[in-house]
Specification:
The complex is a heterodimer of chains A (about 290) and B (about 575).
Chain A lengths: L4 E5 L2 E3 L22 E3 L1 H16 L4 E7 L5 H10 L3 E5 L9 H15 L4 E5 L10 H9 L3 E11 L3 E8 L2 E8 L2 E5 L11 H7 L3 E2 L8 H9 L4 E5 L40 H13 L5
Parallel strand pairs in A: 1-4, 1-6, 4-5, 5-12, 6-10, 7-10, 11-12
Antiparallel strand pairs in A: 2-3, 7-8, 8-9
Helix pairs in contact in A: 2-5, 3-4
Chain B lengths: L8 H7 L4 H9 L15 H33 L2 E3 L2 E3 L2 H12 L18 H14 L1 H8 L3 H8 L2 H12 L4 E4 L15 E5 L4 E12 L5 E7 L10 E7 L5 E6 L10 E14 L5 H38 L1 E2 L2 E2 L4 H40 L4 H40 L1 H4 L5 H8 L9 H13 L2 H11 L7 H23 L3 H30 L4 H23 L5 H5 L3
Parallel strand pairs in B: 3-6
Antiparallel strand pairs in B: 1-2, 4-5, 5-9, 6-7, 7-9, 8-9, 10-11
Helix pairs in contact in B: 2-10, 3-4, 3-5, 5-6, 5-9, 5-10, 7-9, 9-10, 9-11, 9-13, 10-11, 10-17, 10-18, 11-13, 11-14, 14-17, 15-17, 16-17, 16-18, 17-18
Classes of the chains: A alpha/beta (about 290), B alpha+beta (about 575).
Chain lengths: ~290, ~575
Amino acid sequence: MKGLKIIVLAKQVPDTRNVGKDAMKADGTVNRAALPAIFNPEDLNALEQALRLKDKFPGSTVTLLTMGPGRAAEIIREGLYRGADNGYLLTDRAFAGADTLATSYAISCAIRKIKDFDIIIAGRQAIDGDTAQVGPQVAEKLGIPQVTYAEDVLELKNKSVVIKRRLERGVETVECPMPCVITVNGSAPDCRPRNAKAVMKYKHSRTQTERQEASEDYINLVNERPYLNIAEWSVNDIESDINQLGLSGSPTKVKKIENVVFQAKEAKVISADDNGIDELMKELITNHTLG
Amino acid sequence: MDNFYIDNPELKFHLTHPLMKKIVALKERNFADKEQFDYAPIDFEDAMDSYDKVLEIVGDICANIIAPNAESVDAEGPELKDGGVVYAKGTQENLDALVKAGLMGITLPRKYAGLNFPIVPYTMAADIVSRADASFVNVWGLQDCAETIHEFADEDQKMRYLSRVSAGETMAMDLTEPDAGSDLQAVQLKATFNEKDGKWYLNGVKRFITNGDGHISLVLARSEPGTSDGRGLSMFIYDKNNGGVTVRRIEHKLGIIGSPTCELVFKNAPAELVGQRKLGLIKYVMALMNGARLGIAAQSVGIAEAAYREGLNYAKERQQFGKPIIKFPAVYEMLSKMKAKLDGARTLLYETARFVDVYKAYMHLAEERELSKEEKEELKHYQKLADIYTPLAKGLSSEVCNSLAYDSLQIHGGSGFMKDYPIERIYRDARITSIYEGTTQLQVVAAIRGVTTGGYLKQIREYEAEEIKPELHTYRRILIQMTEEYEEAVNKVVSVNDNEYIDFHARRLVEMAGNIVMGYLLLLDTNRDSSYWKSLEVFVKTSRPENHARAEMIRYSNINDLGRFKQE
């Protein structure tokens, strides 16, 4: 089989696993400054799946695509350190404030521009929003099939891919035609560590913006080593409808954010018969847990 | 994310030692490799940054993969299957992770797909790996056998074998036999040259071979029939792909259980001669052992680090009589001494690694061009220092390692004796360090030359002459007194003019020299970074009376002691 062209969607997120007191601002938004920015954990699982495919099918390339502020270039570098071949940072004020709809629109436009791909792999969801919507929406916008909750890519056939999905009550093996979108679960294998040579090779990689203050020596180095240039795309680099981007393309409006403190309450025993289940369902519907 | 490099700032402190400038310059030679290799550094700062970033990867893998696997590796151990070794599951995972991260062939030149790192950062990686799992460093760390191929094999052999090491194949050094342990001159494994196919074949048995089923092995064998001493031995490369060697047994050990210690049977195993015949023991094994000894010194320091941390954490958490036990003088004194010894052993380790780096870099440079007169002198100077510092570092750090493991377990009390805490494994793992690659007693035999020829004293005088901050003068004065006492003791022993008498006091004298050397190194470390102040104070305060006790023993000793102490 010829090499695959794989795109990995990754996001830089605040590390919500180590939340301190000042994690939220008074207005209910996330205080990003108080939380370290990390590579979204399930996107690392996705990257690992991509790298495994690359190991199995020599000649494959892994391209990272991320959208975010300038500092999200860190995500591209991290991917390069672990074995990705190149990456694109989608960054522009016009993208800011995007909900999942606007995000997936921008990303799908960028993918159309990249054009040539066999598989898009993303993490199931990001730990900041936990929506799990962007991957599936990208598939919809590109008009290609999607496989969610993937845990392993088992096999590659001529024009399709066989995937193990992790579901609530077990696993499911599905075959899906390519090109397609796969979203990967956190239960998939952890991402490999950085590679020493890749770190040394790519540690000087920078986006155009990051290079603005660089010394002349550094500019010469980049000219000699073009792979040190991390592609940075603004709204002008992708073909898109500006109204569908950023805040204006985002129908989601945050009404209110509450701090929820989980409290252990007394356990309730429900009798294991139709009557008991009936009572429980009624209660859940009444308190709006269901319905 | 935990990281065993980042959480241990002592490592970065030693990495940034001023002598690194010279080492990097010698190693990178005007940074010429950058034209050819995209991962080669462009200048000194870039090289140092690369060491730092790569050690960060080591620290990550050690904290998040190797250390969490250590308990199961210790419980499972390797398995003998069809005449070969199957590693414990965790050992294999550890190895896969380090190979994938490109952490093999660390010191090898880039043309053999290595990272071309100096010995110093490589030793740091070994230090970090040992803290995570002492048994695993034996499998991974045997990559320094490649250094011997690099030094003595021909270009064709280097091309064929070294890039395989960089790609992740493991190594072994097959020296010991049932009747040849410390005395390798007695090696019997037979190497026969077959005139028909022009190849060497090996027959016989090797014992206690660490990672004996590795891909590429260096084998010491008797190539000259009819000889019985070291001059009849040559060095061979055995490639597992060719077959001919089976593992007959994996030893059951007290510690480092994850490391497979093998008994090997060679049956017409094809092998390649390395370098020249007859130089196997007298030249190549000596070089091999020096590298391995530095490796054990690093392993010792890494284990000591783990022991110290376990002891410290336990002492802070464990409450007795209404307070954490670290509040009791009996416990905090133990811990402060442990820390001082750990810092002392580590600073000696990296001083030694720097000496080895400079002379080896010159040696490899000499293969490419004639060295200038000054360069030749420097090579000789640093080689001499490396020769006397290597056994000192191995001998002393392995003893420090054992003493820290002992004290750390003691701090744990009864709990430490149970399998519930890592310290019982660390304690068992520590025990081998003062035995293999030459027992402490044999390190003393090698190190005593540094005492009798004045090698240590000369270097101590160099340390003494370094400029230091005024507040450190008090400690220098103490170290000068200790040096005078040491000189007097040496002179007294040497003046008796009897080799057995020198051997009798050898360990005492070597330890006295070691304490002064470590004291000075800690003094210079403190001069560079005041966070070593406490370790310096504790180290000097405890080693002065220790040295004094040894000096007293010598002061009241005479040749008749040989008879008094002789056991029949």
